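ok new one. same drill as before - structure tokens go in, u give me an amino acid for every spot. 39 of them this time. try not to just spam alanines like last time pls lmao
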């Protein structure tokens, strides 16, 4: 039973990390695109 819970928690943290990456890298990518457009 505990192994199943650990697996669910691991999957949840993966999803959170992916969501955080979208939040962090989304604006950065937009800034990079704007920077290259101005060059």
């Amino acid at each position: 039973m505990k192994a199943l819970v650990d697996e669910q928690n691991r999957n949840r943290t993966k999803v959170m990390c992916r969501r955080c990456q979208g939040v962090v890298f989304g604006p950065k990518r937009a800034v990079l695109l704007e920077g290259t457009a101005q060059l």
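DSSP finds one helix and no strands in the chain. and btw Helices lie at 2-38.
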